[in-house]
Amino acid sequence: MMNENIFTRNEKLAQKVIKGLNSRNMSGYYASSAEEAKKMALDLIPEGSTVTMGGGMSVHEIGLVDALKKGNYNFLDRDQAEDKRAAMLAAYDADFFLSSCNAITEDGVLINIDGNSNRVSAIAQGPKKVLFIVGMNKVCSDVDGAMKRARNVAAPINAQRFGLDTPCAKTGSCMNCKSPDTICCQFLVTRFSRHADRIHVILVNDSLGF
Question: What's the rounded Cα separation, in Å, for the pair 143 and 80?
Fold first, then answer.
């Protein structure tokens, strides 16, 4: 069970992040638990919607993927697709693209790093709406801190998880490599959404993803 003081701190900090998101033409929400976050996400996604995602452990951890597969949704599962490239391309015309982020600043800037870059490209343009599921463990004070988190926490863990032969997989921190296996190919800083009601971020009072 989360310490009450940490719970309260996260709740207050989330409101600051949401204010920052709103100022950037993005919609922010706060969920006190993973279960609440799942319900909130399903309320945002109309039945019958075409939904897909890039990599996103947080989306799985709150049970959203299982709920979509069991519900009345057209869930495009690239992991089960015979033609993964076709599945990735289909994401650009989806009603909802699901993702987490590697880090988010207290004033609402989203930081994402990608290897194949299908995830960051879909975040930037294509799907009608993008829905982020973000644990409060991803919140950083500023862009510099968020970038450091993405490179020195998220990237090494993901490199290890995928069994990649990168320096960070061995050392646990970014070596600014040019390894053929590097997953730090594209860096996306989302500081504003030109299209209102496109980007939605659910902040979850939990430690999710990496």
Answer: 35
